[in-house]
């Protein structure tokens, strides 16, 4: 059997409980509050863990994301910024 290149292998889908959503935010940000409500709803319904990180407490996050706050990461990769679309987030976590 031929060895398939990793470029052609599909990742096995992860179970929602194995996923992690990270909200990168800053204090006093109303868009961050809005994003958190969507994340809490979707993650709560799917059983997905989530966390939040404050860019004012992490220089690397600040330098990387300060113009895009809030930023949502799914499993460490940027999913979206500014506004979180509930259906798009749900789809990303279930596919």
How does this model look, in words?
This is Glutaredoxin family protein. It holds the Pfam family Glrx-like. It comes from Streptomyces actuosus. The chain has 95 residues and is of the alpha+beta class. The chain has a single domain (17-94), classed as Glutaredoxin (3-Layer(aba) Sandwich), CATH 3.40.30.10. Helices cover 35% and strands 22% of the residues. It contains three helices and four strands; from the N terminus they run E-H-E-H-E-E-H. It has helices at residues 30-46, 59-65, 86-94, and strands at residues 20-25, 49-54, 71-74, 77-81. The protein has a four-stranded mixed beta sheet with strand order 2-1-3-4, sandwiched between helices. Helix 1 packs across helix 3 (86-94). The model has no long low-confidence stretch (mean pLDDT 89).
Keywords:
3 helices; four-stranded mixed sheet; Thioredoxin-like_sf; Glutaredoxin; 95 residues; alpha+beta
């Amino acid at each position: 059997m031929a060895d398939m290149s990793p470029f052609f292998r599909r990742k096995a889908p992860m179970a929602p409980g194995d996923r992690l959503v990270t909200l990168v935010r800053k204090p006093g940000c109303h868009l961050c509050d809005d994003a958190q409500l969507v994340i809490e709803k979707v993650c709560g319904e799917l059983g997905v863990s989530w966390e939040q990180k404050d860019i004012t407490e992490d220089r690397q996050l600040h330098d990387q994301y300060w113009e895009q706050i809030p930023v949502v990461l799914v499993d460490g990769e940027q999913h979206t910024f500014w506004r979180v679309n509930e259906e798009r987030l749900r789809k990303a976590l279930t596919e």
